Amino acid sequence: QICLSLVKLLFYLAHSPLGSIALLDFQPRQFVMVDGNLKVTDMDDASTEELSCKEDNDCTLDFPTKSFPLKCSVAGKCEGINEKKNLFNAYRYFFTYLLPHSAPPALRPLLSNILNATGDLRYGINETLRAFEKVLHLYKSGLYLQKRPLLLKDYISLKGFRTVEGEDYKCWPSYSHLGCLLSIHSAEEAAAICNSQLQCQSFIVTQHRTWTGRPLASFQSSWTDLIPDTNAVVYIKRSASSGERL
């Protein structure tokens, strides 16, 4: 969410009515999330000036660990230098820390491609935004899910119930530090996640949703202490419930 919002912001800056705008003091502290959107807190160090040049050798974009040769346009300006400066800063301050760690396995190669392409400046802001929107579409639609055996049949569902909230086993990347709370596309995906975790014996799907509209599911190591909740469904492994009274 943070990276996509940042890319949308940089897309606007690259195509603003004032021309391409560079953020000269590009640091994470210069941004804040407002209603799920990343915004710049200080525009004092923004500039629409692009480096003047006479030849391509005048257009080197330097960073502490990398340099990029750019083209000198017929107008005597280094082509796209503001856009590329913003994009590489987004890569080194945001993408490298946020992109590799929390996506479903099937989407990680696409995010790795974005990471590599922006780190080498092979993508401009237009290509970067399209790549992010493709990943978002796959994520929201569930098209990233690979065909696999149907596992939900191995669970008993109890509508209108959930378990008592409390600390349980942890997982990554959980929305809660007290347990394993993940976003899912469907109960079928939740069953696959539960089957992949040794501790998991049940999971609860609620009506709480993430910014993409995906429901949240809580994965738990037991299924006892059920309480009524009209907005939840608890799924219990048949193997865990065998011999027990529901």
From TrEMBL:
GO cellular component: extracellular region
Keyword terms, alphabetized: Kinase, Signal, Transferase
One Gene Ontology term from the biological process aspect of the record: skeletal system development
Domain FAM69 protein-kinase: 2-116
A Pfam family that the UniProt record links to this protein: PIP49_C
GO function terms (MF aspect): non-membrane spanning protein tyrosine kinase activity
InterPro entries in the cross-refs: FAM69_kinase_dom, PKDCC
Protein's UniProt keywords contain Amino-acid biosynthesis: no
Superkingdom of origin: Eukaryota
Signal peptide: 1-22
UniProt keyword annotation of Signal present: yes
Protein name as it appears in the record: PKDCC kinase
